[in-house]
Structure prediction request, 94 residues.
Amino acid sequence: MEANRIGRLPEVQAFTGLSRSTIYARIQDGLLTLPVPLGGHSVGWPIREISAINEARISGRTDNEIRALVVRLETERSGKPATPRRKDEKRKAA
Prediction:
C-alpha cells in the first residue's frame, strides 16, 4: 500500500530536503511531477514518484534525464502525455 500513498507538501519537503518554493520551481522546470488534486485546495504527490526522482538524483542522473523520468511518471499516472511546463514552452518557441 505504501507504493500508492500520497504525501502532502510537508512530507515531500522532508523527503526531498527542498523548500516549498524550490519544489514549485522544480515543477515549473520539469524536474518534479505535478501534484495530484485531493479536493478543495489540497494537493499531494504520489510517494513512489518522489522516490523515483530522488533515486535518479542520488544516482547522478542529469536534469534532462530527470525531466524524461518526470514525463514518463506523469504519463503512467494519467495515461496521457505530460503537461508541458512554462520553461519547456519557452524552449520550443526559441
Observations:
- The mean pLDDT is 89.
